[in-house]
Write a structure and sequence with these properties.
- By secondary structure, the chain is of the alpha/beta class.
- Helices cover 37% and strands 17% of the residues.
- It has a single domain, classed as Aldolase class I (TIM Barrel).
- The strands form two sheets. An eight-stranded parallel beta barrel has the order 1-4-5-8-9-10-11-12, surrounded by nine helices. The chain has a two-stranded antiparallel sheet with strand order 6-7.
- α3 runs parallel beside α4.
- The protein binds ligand PBG.
- The site of ligand PBG has 11 residues, from α6.
């Protein structure tokens, strides 16, 4: 009485489903792996600047630097050798102005580096980010409408429609310099349509557009802004980048961009948007990219440097999750390392 009876000898609970069978050996696990990463789906971001033989390290992004054109070509060659699929260029100009006109400068670092990469015949898809924030004195992604005297500049003063012609011009500059794909990242309404029109009118009908459609106002862009010197001088970007709380709006942004002519849409940041990638995979029929952004990589690097996580395993797990969620293409600062690890296997 009051005692729990021991199970009769010989009687065991009958297990009818045994998924562990397929995990038994490394060969079995490799055979049935559902998500496979390939180097060719990785895109390496590069920060390009003026000068020669210049590489200024970016402390928050270990292994990355602001590169002069010649050094960027050398890094791109290594990436191509590792099997990486493409590079995306961000410009660090020598001077900035109020309207970010430097973005469209045919002598700027992005256009120069594109030309050099073309000349070097590097086997990579060449992408160029199209945004004004690296080129404006105030660091916002658009032109600022002058407020009435006596009033301070506000984020709401970022003038959507006045920004469009400048990014259209920038896209044409990059297309002329050899970009295969241009990527508007400023979250201005109508930016994809404006760029498509500018490209078509200038004869660049074969230049593709990857739209940063679902780009959240995120805390994870910190290291990028340090690298690019593009932190907003006042306010923040919440007047144009999306609220990270909104999933339906993210889908709407992607649908609008497809309608405006986007050849590929992007979700950003990646790891905080896996649900958006999964939904987009079902509802959007153009290729889907995810940007594993600077802050996501910085967290991983910092923890790994402290010995708190294993860098390689954490990197592979992160990128596999992004692809499992639905991304076809992943932009990541880890592209070269990951491509090499994949080649080893
Ligand atoms: C430019 C742009 C940013 C990033 C990509 N394009 C910065 C921003 O929006 O502030 C961030 C990428 C990263 O963090 O790696 N608008």
């Amino acid at each position: 009485m009051g005692r729990i009876a021991a199970a009769p000898p010989g009687l065991r609970q009958r297990v009818t489903e045994r998924p562990r069978r397929m995990r038994r050996t490394a060969a079995l696990r490799a055979l049935v792996r559902e998500t496979r990463l390939a180097p060719s789906q990785l895109v390496l971001p590069l920060f390009v600047t003026s000068g020669h033989d210049r590489a200024e390290a970016i402390p928050s992004l270990p292994g990355h630097a602001r590169l002069s054109t010649d050094r960027a070509v050398a890094v791109a060659r290594e990436a191509a050798h590792a099997g990486v699929g493409g590079v995306i260029l961000f410009g660090i100009p020598d001077t900035k102005d109020e309207d970010g006109r430097g973005a469209a400068d045919a002598n700027g670092p992005v256009a120069r580096t594109l030309l050099a990469l073309r000349d070097a015949d590097v086997d990579l898809v060449l992408m160029a980010d199209v945004c004004l924030c690296e080129y404006t004195t105030h660091g916002h992604c658009g032109v600022i409408r002058r407020p009435r005297a006596g009033r301070d500049l506000e984020v709401g003063d970022v003038d959507n429609d006045a920004t469009l012609p400048i990014i259209g011009e920038a896209a044409v500059t990059y297309a002329a310099a050899g970009a295969d794909v241009v990527g508007p990242s400023g979250m201005m309404d109508g930016q994809v349509a404006a760029i498509r029109e500018a490209l078509d009118e200038s004869g660049h009908t074969q230049t593709a557009i990857v739209a940063y459609s679902s780009k959240a106002a995120s805390a994870f862009y910190g290291p990028f802004r340090e690298a690019a010197g593009s932190a907003p001088a006042f306010g923040d970007r919440r007047g144009y980048q999306m609220d990270y709380a909104n999933a339906r709006e993210a889908l709407r942004e992607m649908q609008l961009d497809v309608r405006e002519g986007a050849d590929m849409v992007m979700v950003k940041p990646a790891l905080t948007s896996l649900d958006l990638l999964a939904r987009a995979r079902r509802e959007i029929n153009v290729p889907l990219a995810a940007y594993h952004v600077s802050g996501e990589v910085a967290m991983l690097e910092a923890a790994a440097a402290n010995g708190w996580i294993d860098r390689r395993s954490a990197a592979m797990e992160s990128l596999t999750a992004i692809v499992r969620a639905g991304a076809d293409v992943v932009l990541t600062y880890l592209a070269v390392d990951v491509a090499r690890w994949l080649q080893e296997k």
